[in-house]
Amino acid sequence: MATQFVESVEGLEFSDFDPFSAEFRENPEKYHPLLLAQSPGFITMEGVPSAYIAGFAQCQAVLRNFKGFSSLKPKGLPGMERIDFFNGLPVMNYSDPPDHTRRRKVVNPAFTPKRTQMLNENAAIIIDSMIDKIMANGGGFEALGDFTKIVSIDTLLRHFMGIEDKDQPIFMNYVMTLPLLDKMRPGDPKPQAYLDAWAAGAAYCKEQQELARRGECRNLIGVIAEGAEGGAIDDDEMMAMMIVLLIGGVSTVAGAAAASLMNLARNPDVAERVRQDPSLAINVLEESMRLDPPVSLVMRFATDNIEVGGKVIPKGMPTYVMLGVACHDPSVYPDPYKFDIDRPNVKDHIAFGHGMHTCIGNAITRNVVPLLIQKVVGKMPNLRLADRPDALEWDTSTPRARHIGKLYLQA
């Protein structure tokens, strides 16, 4: 056991649970009761003694305590290759104040009320267009490929981020290479396809930053660059920030919308209620996110010996905060696997994280997806799962989550 990263493991009992295992990703519900009962628990990941936190209140406490649980990844920690989506660059996700504060401040101008309103207007146009096209073709469609991904790319890449159609494949190709990282073992080089996709994205961002410095860039890079005058962020940070927005925006919106459609198709009574009261659309999104969070876990690193749930997490220990498990904690969500938009705490989940590291894409998702839900229940009153054995397929190819891979619906 590699204990050089951890102060002491004396007296700790370790289990063989692996949060990155295919078994857990494919059937997480099977593991929830034991993980909740044992939390905090101790495991060994790539030879490194580690902890996991699963209880809802425990996860909230750890995520709020940025001084006791740092987001900075220790250099040389085995296993980090699998979740290093940013090619080793500094990003908000893995930073603490004051660096996190500085980077978040630079990107805040991208989320002004004016830009959000413009986002909604553009989203409404593409959503209406896609629904009309689907209905004109008989009403059968695959939710992601035929609808939510297209809406997400058009709304986020084209209108919000301002990336022209010809340049959008640069970033989508990058996202397609991320599952390759899951196959990496400690010491493995990055897959060449990933490196090539990263290089293409970096070249694009560098070109746009040069245009922004001359006042010739009108997309999101230009907006961020204006907020970064005086060297607040460098070129590498800009590239990493664009990737954060891409993953936190495009992927989250598409997945959240698909999950919401799945739950509406399974619960026509809920769809009818939203049809009668469109304000309930946000509850559909929130409950869908709780049931299937966009990210199932995040990592923190204990800066001291810290007690959580009656157990001490040793200084230096990598700690996996199990968001997906916490969102099914029956002490907070009775009957946790039931889709229930009337929960009094329906909006209090931690599917988007918690504290200062709350997913930056949550504001976009909470604007676009309820709008999509409202339009779907209005224009697709008979939405249901398609009558085929593969109507729902899960994608477990990414290390930190289980997503809907295919969802065939009939309107």
Automatic annotation (TrEMBL):
<dbReference type="GO" id="GO:0004497">
    <property type="term" value="F:monooxygenase activity"/>
</dbReference>
<dbReference type="Pfam" id="PF00067">
    <property type="entry name" value="p450"/>
</dbReference>
<dbReference type="GO" id="GO:0020037">
    <property type="term" value="F:heme binding"/>
</dbReference>
<dbReference type="InterPro" id="IPR017972">
    <property type="entry name" value="Cyt_P450_CS"/>
</dbReference>
<feature type="transmembrane region" description="Helical">
    <location>
        <begin position="238"/>
        <end position="265"/>
    </location>
</feature>
<dbReference type="GO" id="GO:0005506">
    <property type="term" value="F:iron ion binding"/>
</dbReference>
<dbReference type="InterPro" id="IPR001128">
    <property type="entry name" value="Cyt_P450"/>
</dbReference>
<comment type="similarity">
    <text>Belongs to the cytochrome P450 family.</text>
</comment>
<keyword id="KW-0560">Oxidoreductase</keyword>
<keyword id="KW-0349">Heme</keyword>
<protein>
    <submittedName>
        <fullName>Cytochrome P450</fullName>
    </submittedName>
</protein>
<keyword id="KW-1133">Transmembrane helix</keyword>
<keyword id="KW-0408">Iron</keyword>
<keyword id="KW-0812">Transmembrane</keyword>
<dbReference type="InterPro" id="IPR002397">
    <property type="entry name" value="Cyt_P450_B"/>
</dbReference>
<dbReference type="GO" id="GO:0016705">
    <property type="term" value="F:oxidoreductase activity, acting on paired donors, with incorporation or reduction of molecular oxygen"/>
</dbReference>
<keyword id="KW-0472">Membrane</keyword>
<keyword id="KW-0503">Monooxygenase</keyword>
<dbReference type="InterPro" id="IPR036396">
    <property type="entry name" value="Cyt_P450_sf"/>
</dbReference>
<keyword id="KW-0479">Metal-binding</keyword>
